[in-house]
Amino acid sequence: MTQTYLLLHGGAGPQSVAAFAERLAAEAGARVLAPTHPGFDGTERPAHIDSVRALAAHYRDYLDELGVRDVTVIGNSIGGWIAAELALLGSPRVARIVLVDAVGVEVPGHPVADFFNLTPAQIAAASYYEPQKFAVDPARMAGNRTALAVYAGEPSMVDPTLLARLQGVPNPALVVWGDSDGIADSDYGRAFAEAIPGARFVVLERTGHLPQIENPDGLLDVVRGWVADAPKAAHPLTFHLTPEEGL
Fold it and tell me: Where in this chain does the record put each AB hydrolase-1 domain (predicted)?
């Protein structure tokens, strides 16, 4: 049976996952759904979709409409937050979740970067291990900030209740983090993983906040290997991978 993935982008917008979606579909032989969050890239945002939880409910309904099953949800940044909330809704269509440098939890001593007060250059510096290789489109970013502020809240991009609620995630979970993430550091990621029962935590070396762009080979290897193994670990496991290594 063809594996179905729901790939949820972060504040960088749908273009930040487009190339990875194509690779995942081609190399994993999978069906990949990569929607644009309402309000991003000039799309309309219905008034009732005004929070991350509401957005998660929107994607629960989306999966119901499609009638798909055994879905692996992959979310980067705020997309990871959405994926976690979607898992907490208990949809029987969601089999497992992959949180890639997710935000949304509050971890003492490890705050999420004040994204809304950073310049495009500062965002690039915080987002990549080698920021000089990647450009940030200020016009597109400015257009998406409004929708991001509605969903995630300005300036914190956290829900103080989420960390405790993650104990209720019923699905196997993989948490993947770039060791050079300047938006949310790897200790933040570790806390995210430890809050989810049985979650596996994998660190990608020489990688920032957007592994699907900066280290797609490493991310693809980790995701494919983990999905194939259908993990049922009782405690968080940690691995450190370089961009040249697989799982």
Answer: 6-221
4-241: what fold?
Rossmann fold (3.40.50)
The one-letter code for the residue type at 126 is A
Q: What's the Cα-to-Cα distance from 199 to each of 62, 86, 94, 110, 167, rounded to whole Å?
A: 26, 16, 16, 20, 10
Residue located via tokens 């490493």: 218
Q: What is the pLDDT along the chain (247 residues), one digit of tens a residue?
A: 789 999 999 999 999 999 999 999 999 899 999 999 999 999 999 999 999 999 999 999 999 999 999 999 999 999 999 999 999 999 999 999 999 999 999 999 999 999 889 988 899 999 999 999 987 777 777 779 999 999 998 777 899 999 999 999 999 999 999 999 999 999 999 999 999 999 999 999 999 999 999 999 999 999 999 999 865 433 344 545 655 544 4
> What residues does each domain of the chain span?
4-241
Query: What residues does 60 pair with on adjacent strands?
Result: none
Distance (Å) of CA 92 to CA 62, 72, 95: 13, 12, 7
Omega before 111 within 30 of 0, i.e. cis:
no
